[in-house]
Amino acid sequence: MKGLFITGTDTGVGKTVIAGYLARYLLNKGHTVITQKWVQSGCKGNFPPDIAAHLKAMVRNKSYVKDCLHLVCPYKFRFPASPHLASRMENKRINPRKIIRSFRTLARRFDFVIVEGSGGVMVPLDRRILLIDLAQEAGLPVLIVAQNKLGAINHTLLAVEALRLRKMDILGIVFNNPQREDARIIKDNPLIIGALTGENILGILPWTELPEKLYERFVPIAEKICKIQR
Ligand SMILES: Nc1ncnc2c1ncn2[C@@H]1O[C@H](COP(=O)(O)OP(=O)(O)O)[C@@H](O)[C@H]1O
Ligand SMILES: [Mg+2]
Questions:
Q1: Rounded CA separation 164/10 (Å)
Q2: Ligand 1 pocket check: which of 11, 15, 16 to mutate, most ligand atoms within 8 Å of Cβ?
């Protein structure tokens, strides 16, 4: 596996946390790793916030990407909205070819390229193209991050159906616990979703404000992801 695409059931579900920690895990194993955010909206400063968070999780500083930031994040926009709207507000078109090229260039330079999606699978880049179409074109296997809350069953099953419709390779589903949710829902979501889809349930990440503890809990999940042969 050369890379993977991390999608989620929604925005704010833990994609950035998981992308960063997976990158850290692979670095610790001795691989060369880079993360990508194809389209970053809500980028107020010069540096894409999700890439900054990945680097922090990887225990690397910004100089790690200084030569390749234009490839790591080909599009950044100020307004926090869907890429199609955020780009339109700046009168800028998103060129899918440029995104695919950035991925391929990094894939030649690094052992692993971890791509974090924007929002969920069916997010538009313009009036024709969805993010999922680009991930399909890049040939990337997909990791789904599901926020482990009421509503996750529907959101996760829809994401799985959309990926299957495009014959995309689903690595599995990571459940990320929100700050507050009923313990019975937290326990049942992965079971019912596993039963209904037959997809790999890669683990449940607890809610914790302690980054080191979160990483420690992520390691067994990363091990499972890396054992999947592709
Ligand atoms: N398991 C967790 N424990 C504590 N905080 C978390 C956890 N998962 C996500 N967060 C926090 O929730 C917020 C949203 O997560 P993030 O990874 O940025 O989501 P996304 O990339 O899907 O938009 C961030 O502030 C992140 O640090
Ligand atoms: Mg993010």
A1: 18
A2: 16
Q: What is the per-residue DSSP string for 192-228? A: HHHHHH---EEEEEPP-S-HHHHHHHHHHHHHHHHHS
Kindly state the helix (H) or strand (E) to which residue 126 belongs, with its residue range.
none
Query: What one-character DSSP code corresponds to residue 174?
Result: E
Cα angle vertex 66, ends 64, 68, to 5°? 100
pLDDT per position as a tens digit, 51-85: 999 999 999 999 999 999 999 999 999 999 999 99
Name the percent of the chain lying above pLDDT 90: 98
pTM of the model: 0.98
Residue 56: its pLDDT value, please? 98
- Segments making up each domain of the chain, as ranges: 3-227
CATH class of 3-227: alpha beta
- Kindly report the protein residue whose alpha carbon is nearest to atom 15 of ligand 1: 14
